Amino acid sequence: MFPQPSKTFNNNFFTPKKREPISKDKIIDIQKLVHQNNNNELIITTDINIIFGGRACSGQHTTIEVLKDPCYSPRYTKLSCDQPPEVKCQTFSVINRVNFEVQNYTLRFISTPGLFRETYQKEEPKWDNTKVMTMIANNLDKEVTYLNGLILFISFEGGINEQDIQSILWYQVYFKDQGLKMALCVTHSDKHLEKEWRDHILNEINSHQELSKLIKNGDMNILFMGCVDLARYTNEEQLLEAYKLVFAMRDEMFKFIFDCKDRM
Known about the structure:
Rossmann fold, about 35% helix
């Protein structure tokens, strides 16, 4: 039999004691400590999706490598595009190397096989431009929901040929209604340290009837890009100047890429 409660039982025993609130300053100090030990911080970023294209073997793959590493140099020079065609998507976060802060951007570079591919191996099927563009479209449907920018590539090493013109036209027609910012990049520019050469190229582009029309219709920026071929330099000062040029061209391309966050 349970004992009967005492008539003098104090009911305040079950009443919780009033607690003093934690001061705002103390809360801030504790939360600051928590944030300092947060090893996995999620940062909301803006996606910038850039597609790289043009005529096959015009330098787009090398350009992406230089954007990843300004000291990139191919181990050997390819005389032909002998790799199987593929659309390759690479995603990057951006770190400011001055303050080591992660920038609020996620860059997605989509490299394409290039148009006017030549078949160098008997077992390789022939890839016409329609088939290449279909491959690009199918991969874009899987990888990205929208594009921000288009960079097309051309090399003036052998002059401007009809395939360069047609490649630009193919891409412009295909992406004309997507509001992309466009640029034309002149590759192999590392071989010419003097500014006069780049001024000459700009003059050649503006005076070329077909190319200048495409530039105007696409409201295209003109960029330059190259990579340092270590075998070409025996003088340290010239090598440093070459790297400075590549660094400057790379910075200009990054400026264009970041500007693409605001689509046209």
